[in-house]
Amino acid sequence: MSQFIYYLAIAVALALVIYSIILHEIAHGYAAYRLGDPTAAMQGRLTLNPVKHIDPFSTILVPMMTYYFMGFIFGGAKPIPINPYNFRNRAKGMMISGIAGPAVNLVIMLVFALLHRLFLLTHGVVSDALIAIVGLVGWLNMVLLVFNMLPIPPLDGSRVVSYFLPADLRQSYNSLERYGLFIVLAVLLLFRPQLGTLFYYVRIVYEFIAG
What we know:
By secondary structure, this protein is an all-alpha fold. 71% of the residues lie in helices and 0% in strands.
């Protein structure tokens, strides 16, 4: 693989991962819309236009700061606005709209993982660059899926935990969301070995699927 093809493959994979993140956010908003909350739709967020999903803080500043101070890149798209008071059942509505994003990453991961397995069977017909792209996109969607399902507010896994908590504990648990970014960064910094072990096993599962 030439250097040009190598960097082109990285650029294509990066673009596909960015749109995976966008589809993740759109899924939150669309699920909320179907459950009675039109907030995201009214604000024009149910769109594939990446500009609509850029947040100066979480998309630009946070990745720069984490890379400079911590040695890794962490960030995200502009959060989809959801008004739980528009749901008939607030806790259930937040849970369903919450897991909609990771569900999209699951579908994308399976599609690209199975494509990777198929392309490996046709070795010599499909270029190594394309095989690398589909493998990387599938893996990063697996990472997005597992990471977002961690039960840390405001990650999507916290919506599932919140739904099953008693009402009094749910309110206290959800109140942690205001400190969510700092909690997530602290977890990434203080529990890197444990997260490394988790994703080591996640990688084994992914390789079993993708071949």
